[in-house]
Amino acid sequence: MKLNKNSIFYHCLLLSSSSVLLQMIGFAYRILLGRFAGAQAIAVYGLVMSAYNVVLSCTLTGVALSVSRIASSYQAMGEGRSIVRLIRTALLLFLMLFFVLAVPFAFGRDFFAQTVLGNPQTELALLLIVPCLFLTGFENVHKAFFYGTGQTMIPTISEILEMFCRIIAAALLFHLTAEISLDDGQAAALIVCGMIFSEMVSATFLVSIYHLRQTKLSGKNTISQPQILRDIASVAVPVSLSTLIGRLISSANMVLIPRILIQSGNNQYAAMEEFGVLSGMTMPMLMLPSAFFSPLITVLSPRFSAGKVLEHHIMIRRKAGKALHIVGLIGIPSMTMMLIFGEQLGELLYHNPLVGRHLPILTLITLVGFYYAVAESVLESIGLQKSCSVLTVAASLTGLLCTLFFGGIMKKGMTGFLIGELLSSLVGAVFCLRWLKKQTQLNFQIKNWVFRPLLASVVSGLWTRFVFNFLMQAEILPVLRLVFCMSLFAFLYTIFLRLLGTDFWQYTQKTLLNRLP
User: Fold this and answer.
1) Would you give the DSSP letter of residue 180?
2) What would you report as the CA-atom Rg of the chain, rounded to the nearest whole angstrom?
3) Which range has the top average pLDDT, 60-69, 346-355, 482-491?
4) Nearest to residue 427, comparing CAs of 307, 249, 266, 282?
5) Spatial separation of the C-alpha atoms in residues 424 and 403, rounded to whole Å
6) Do residues 307 and 432 lie in contact, with contact meaning Cβ atoms separated by under 8 Å?
7) pLDDT top residue among 72 and 487
8) Continuous H helices in 311-384
9) How many beta carbons lie within 10 A of that of residue 3, not counting itself?
10) Distance between CA atoms of 82 and 179, rounded to whole angstroms?
11) Looking at residue 297, what is its pLDDT?
């Protein structure tokens, strides 16, 4: 069967394939960092990235997101040539914000390292994230252009190229410094140096292709410059504010974790190691299913924006339902599989026994987070940015308060943080789903979307766990045993799901091969 290259399925398949490849490359990258840098250096790097994300939200996040959605709307309106001025305006806004906010941050890095992050070893890496952010700005604005205009292949190639460059740079840098005794801060700075190199390659690639492709944009060029600024502001301002506040709260949460772990009885070394394992090893492993959900959101968001402009309400309702259905069909069995095999998978990948800790609550947090992310993406795409922004702040604040109460006052340590993350995800998911139902008149088919995949996952998991325990007694390589049992789970899940009345592949063929609007 010939795939329709203008269908959701084609674009999701393309992005999902690349995303799976990126996840595999990312695993190799994290394993490399775990071996060369160690868990404590990864923890320092995690603190640096929390600061980086805050600065990113101030300067770039809202601007880049607005480009994707507005470009899609302009294209639907026949204003293709106006997109060129949209890109120029977005880049100018980013540069203004960068010089006003990011450059002063570099000069005040000592204050942020000592006082805000509470770890002086982060100072050097904090300086290096500023040039990294400059390159990321050009990369993300042009990447948003390609996604917004439906040209998914270019950013796909860019992301794969970027990850390969990051691995090569990290391996080379750690190899060249192998005979030097690096502290954790210097090791984290080397990781950021690798990021700079990869961002340089990716930004150069995207900007070059954009200048070749912009001449092919067709349509009118009649949207005024003040209107372009208003359009960007309508998306960027609420998204940037909510992202900034959310990331400030999230960063505060991340900074609090090592301190709370120390208060609950761990020494500093053990606290930083557990934090590094959770943030740099366990969570990336659990996020594997995002290899499909992220592309689904990326492909659908511009279509929802275009559908809002063209008042295609039936299309929005139908595709929103499909997106939520996919979350259940893939997310529930994926988290079941991680719950069963996560400890063995983590040991195999990272050779660290701490990777498998807290899996029951972590899998639940991740699954709820998938529903939250997809529903929020639909709402933002149809014009509810302000409501989603307020919700993001409220959900993040819920997580922070729970961390302080359960982790700090109750001295539950990491468990307190995880309780906060779960409540935060639940608050976000519940409100987003309620608003989505109200705005689109969507009829939630809980039986098909949740109960069937849940029952099929549980039954498949019980059978697979029995087989796995039996094979544990045999002399089989752990990797072969794990691959066989995970494949068996996927096969059984498909069979049981079909017996319950849902054929995933047939569903995909009938619902996602439709031509995009």
Assistant:
1) S
2) 23
3) 482-491
4) 249
5) 11
6) no
7) 487
8) 313-326, 332-350, 359-381
9) 11
10) 55
11) 65
Which residues sit opposite 7 in a β-bridge? 515
CB 372 within 8 A of CB 228: no
**DSSP 3-state assignment of 245?**
helix
The encoded tokens of residue 378 equal: 């639909």
* Res. 179: pLDDT tops 70: yes
| Average confidence (pLDDT) over 185-203 | 89
Q: How far apart are CA 407 and CA 256, in angstroms?
A: 9
**In Å, what is the CA distance from 134 to each residue of 94, 131, 142, 155, 485?**
9, 5, 13, 18, 45
Angstrom distances, CA of residue 10 to CA of 5, 19, 257, 345, 515:
6, 14, 42, 31, 10
Taking residue 279's Cβ as centre, other Cβ atoms within 10 Å add up to 20
Q: What is the DSSP string of 270-293?
A: HHHHHHHHIIIIIHHHHTTTHHHH
> What distances in angstroms separate CA 213 from CA 65, 141, 146, 218, 474, one per listed residue?
20, 15, 10, 11, 57
Sign of CA dihedral 102, 108, 109, 115: negative
Give the tens place of pLDDT for each residue, 446-474: 887 888 889 988 999 899 888 888 887 77
First to last CA, the chain: 21
Alpha-helix residue ranges (DSSP H) falling in 177-267: 184-213, 225-263
CB distance 289 to 336 below 8 Å: no
In this predicted structure, what is the pLDDT of residue 200?
A: 92
CA dihedral 222, 226, 228, 232 (to 10 degrees): -170
Structure tokens at 160: 């794969």
